[in-house]
Write a structure and sequence with these properties.
Layout (H helix, E strand, L loop, with lengths): L2 H6 L3 H7 L3 H6 L11 E7 L18 H8 L2 E7 L5 H10 L3 H4 L33 H6 L4 E6 L14 E3 L17 H15 L2 H4 L3 E6 L11 H8 L10 H23 L6 E7 L22 H4 E7 L8 E3 L3 E2 L3 H9 L15 H4 L9 E6 L3 E2 L13 E3 L2 E6 L2 E6 H6 L12 E5 L15 H18 L9 H7 L1
Parallel strand pairs: 1-5, 1-6, 2-8, 2-9, 3-4, 3-5
Antiparallel strand pairs: 2-7, 6-7, 10-13, 11-12, 13-14, 14-15
Helix pairs in contact: 4-11, 8-11, 10-11
The structure holds calcium ion.
Length: 485
């Protein structure tokens, strides 16, 4: 979008957006009345894969409403979750921090899979976010926002203990899986709750902006959906990649949810002052879907496990039909939302992300060049897709990852720690290097071919690990070594 056009759309919020660096905009915003601040609707899907929507290229799944809204907004093709499974991604998103700062690395135990196959003792996992962390909800509260966390939480305590004004989860709706005893469907009930929240907190009346974190349990296992929808997909031609009718029906219910949320925003005339974000917490589950051409799925640190579908919709502000190829990551939402709200980052609190507002106003790149992941844990293999993981026993073993522009490097802790590290780099297979621009499927490991790029990324990853105090497991697992000696 041209700068001139943008100015024509000016409101207080976009004025702040255009006034240059974050700090300047913060200083100048003291006179802005609270209810002019944009509302934020964050629609968070569980386990939705990169290709699991129509607009991302599926011709089996049906997401006409999502496709329509995405195409009226900005589609991000290189958006990443902070982890390849649920809890760490959520912890990072809500705290604005990479996993070594909050210690939530995985779901449940960090030692999954058979002990006799694990060469290292993994780093202990934290199952909840420390209350000392300043979550995005707490930060936005200081900017006058009222907030709700509806649906899946998964990081310990309750949303109200982490700064949300209102929280409701599926237990409170008396649902164990995806259906209530009366046959009501969880995706629909959570959408009802979200709509109630929006109506009750309509900023036209309350004069306060809202932050809605709608966190669906769909499309996580167990794979369950409405019968009539399943039947429709059973009649439809499937393909090698997408062919599970029940999973497709779950996605279709998500599509209805997004449509209903958007409709209420339109009815209440809130669209023009509401940033709507659509995001997923990790890649699709390999037993039920696939994200080809990406390699792998949920639980792996190849692209299929961490690259997720994302779009941003904000009529009048974000250019319709736009696409952004710049890599962005879950931790970017925190500083983005702060900037929208016109407030500075909390004092003495580290934020690892970068505001994506420059991208929303049409810039092609951020100054930030590198993204990082750290997973000092094991995740056992599951049915499907084992040929796409590094070995058939685990979706992933302990690994650290850097993506820098077109390049991605994975450092596998077992080989690094136990097989000679840098001294034996030519033989120990501890490093994989891919050029995602030429090789999005991560098939051609260039670690021994482009050693210059390998060493550049590796040094940056080591520096990052050191600075953020990322723990790499170093203790050999006696059960493995007893068994194999
Ligand atoms: Ca998930």
């Amino acid at each position: 979008m041209e700068r001139r056009e943008f100015l024509n759309l000016s409101t207080a919020a976009i004025g702040a957006l255009m006034s240059g660096p974050l700090l300047n905009s913060c200083k100048n915003n003291t006179s802005r009345s609270t209810h002019d601040k944009p509302n934020i609707v964050f629609i968070f899907i569980d386990d939705l894969g990169w290709k699991d929507t129509g607009y991302m290229g599926s011709d089996y799944y049906e997401t006409p409403n999502i496709d329509n809204i995405a195409q009226q907004g900005m589609i991000f093709t290189n958006a990443y979750a902070n982890a390849a499974n649920c809890a760490p991604t959520r912890a990072s998103l809500l705290t604005g921090q990479y996993s070594p700062r909050h210690g939530v690395y995985t779901v449940a135990s960090s030692a999954r899979g058979k002990s006799k196959n694990r060469r290292l003792i993994p780093i202990e996992n934290s199952r909840q976010v420390d209350q000392a962390k300043i979550t995005i909800a707490e930060a936005l509260k200081n900017a006058g926002y009222v907030s709700a966390a509806i649906g899946k939480w998964h990081i310990g305590q309750k949303p109200e203990q982490q700064g949300f004004d209102f929280g409701i989860d599926r237990n409170e709706l008396k649902i164990k899986g995806h259906f209530s005893e009366n046959g009501e469907y969880l995706t629909d009930l959570l959408t009802d709750e979200a709509i109630n929240f929006i109506k009750k907190n309509n900023p036209h009346t309350t004069k306060k902006p809202f932050f809605l974190y709608l966190s669906h349990h769909a499309v996580h296992t167990p794979i369950r959906a409405k019968k009539n929808m399943i039947e429709a997909f059973e009649k439809k031609p499937a393909n090698d990649c997408h062919n599970n009718a029940t999973y497709a029906a779950m996605i279709k219910s998500v599509d209805e949810s997004v449509a209903r949320i958007n409709k209420v925003l339109e009815e209440l005339e809130l669209n023009n002052n509401t940033l709507l974000v659509f995001f997923s917490d990790n890649g699709g589950h390999g037993t039920y879907t696939c994200q080809k051409p990406l390699r792998g799925g949920k639980g792996m640190y190849y692209e299929g496990g961490i690259r997720v579908p994302m779009f941003v919709y904000w009529p009048g502000k974000v250019k319709p039909g736009s696409t952004c190829e710049e890599p962005v990551i879950g931790t970017d939402f925190y500083p983005t939302f702060l900037q929208l709200a016109g407030i500075s980052a909390p004092q003495n609190y580290e934020l690892d992300g970068t505001s994506i507002l420059p991208l929303l106003k049409g810039e092609k790149k951020l100054s930030r060049e590198s993204l990082f992941w750290h997973f000092p844990c094991y995740l056992q293999a599951y049915k499907g897709m084992t040929d796409e993981s590094r070995d058939p026993l685990f979706r992933t073993r302990p690994v650290s990852v850097i993506r820098k522009r077109d390049w991605k490097l994975l450092m596998f802790h077992e080989e690094w720690v136990l097989d000679g590290g840098r001294k034996n780099l030519e033989e120990n297979n501890s490093i994989e290097l891919y050029n995602l621009k030429d090789d999005i499927a991560e098939q051609n490991n260039l670690a021994q071919i482009n050693t210059g790029k390998r060493d550049e990324l590796f040094k940056e990853l080591m520096d990052w690990q050191k600075n953020i105090k990322a723990p790499v497991p170093t203790n050999p697992n006696p059960e493995y070594f007893d068994k194999n000696n």
